[in-house]
Design brief:
Layout lengths: L6 E6 L5 H11 L5 E4 H7 L3 E5 L4 E4 L1 H14 L2 E5 L12 E6 L2 H10 L4 H12 L2 H9 L5 E5 L3 H25 L2
Parallel strand pairs: 1-5, 1-6, 2-5, 6-7
Antiparallel strand pairs: 3-4
Helix pairs in contact: 1-7, 4-5
Length: 179
């Protein structure tokens, strides 16, 4: 798939810093990238079947979500920011970044968001059990899945630099490949 810029998925358990990473990456990237917070898109475009009040979350209509995203993905130059990644077709991402965070730090972050205790526990368990990284590894080629720590400002800065370097190399490879 030829595109102006890469398709990058930034994923991880809620509270690991996906949106912060995606927002800064969109600003720092050597190529223009559009940041799409998939959770916000689901709400804005009503791409859900119902709202689960117990879990305080929407039950996503995956088919409608994928149909909505397809033209944007085909155009490239996008960052998808979501707590899961395995629903995205294997052909979509050029890079899948899985953010990880120590579970005690994650617990504190989710408490600050006023998540209900049950939701904090479920997300904390998911982080401990490595659910998101396992989904990513099972869904995409190993060479495009990167696991990064997201516990401090230093981690954030280092991660952004690393992804920007990856974009630069990716862009160079795209240019050389089209000669």
């Amino acid at each position: 798939m030829s595109s102006k810029g890469p398709v990058i998925v930034i994923t991880g358990t809620p509270g690991t810093g996906k949106s912060t990473h995606a927002q800064i990456l969109a600003q720092e990237s050597p190529v223009p990238l559009r940041h799409i917070n998939v959770g916000d898109l689901v709400k804005e475009k009503n791409l859900y079947e119902e709202y689960d009040s117990e879990w305080q979350s929407h039950i996503v209509d995956e088919d409608r979500l994928l149909d909505e995203l397809e033209p944007t993905i085909e155009a490239g130059s996008v960052i998808l920011d979501w707590h899961t990644c395995e629903i995205f077709p294997e052909r979509w991402p050029d890079l899948v970044v899985v953010l990880r965070c120590d579970h005690t730090r994650l617990w504190d972050r989710l408490e600050k968001r006023n998540y209900p205790l049950k939701k904090i526990q479920e997300n904390n368990d998911a982080e401990i059990m490595e659910v998101v990284i396992e989904e990513a590894r099972a869904s995409y080629p190993n060479e495009i899945v990167v696991e990064l720590r997201s516990e401090s400002t230093e981690d954030l800065e280092s991660n952004i630099l690393r992804i920007v370097e990856w974009i630069t190399v990716w862009q160079k490879n795209q240019t050389e490949g089209s000669d």
